[in-house]
Amino acid sequence: MAKTVMVIDDSASIRQVVGIALKGAGYEVLEARDGQDALSKLTGQKVHLMISDVNMPNMDGIAFVKEVKQRPAYRFTPIIMLTTESQEEKKRQGQAAGAKAWVVKPFQPEQMLAAVSKLILP
């Protein structure tokens, strides 16, 4: 059975690029526009990994990570931040919230898929 990855980004084109790369590698993909949208779509189904932008309307990526880590069903789900932010301070905030990796845009799909395959839940 294919593993499921949720992609959270307010940019439809980024969701599309990431989705194409993931689907090409055999993953199922769920999409969300922002942290709030993502939380509303997490209804207890198994999600093996999440990829989230940092800067989004309604709920940013770091607030989303903190919130998702409070939910027992998703406490151990690895989260990769995919963002234009490369500042150490933002990375520290992301790691403190529970993000497992930080991929800076523009990114190479291979680089992102390598991070996904390393971190995805069995």
Automatic annotation (TrEMBL):
Keyword presence, Phosphoprotein: yes
One Pfam family linked to the record: Response_reg
InterPro entries reported for this sequence: Bact_response_regulator, CheY-like_superfamily, Sig_transdc_resp-reg_receiver
Entry keyword set: Phosphoprotein
Modified residues (4-aspartylphosphate): 53
Annotated ranges, domain Response regulatory: 4-120
Protein name: Response regulator
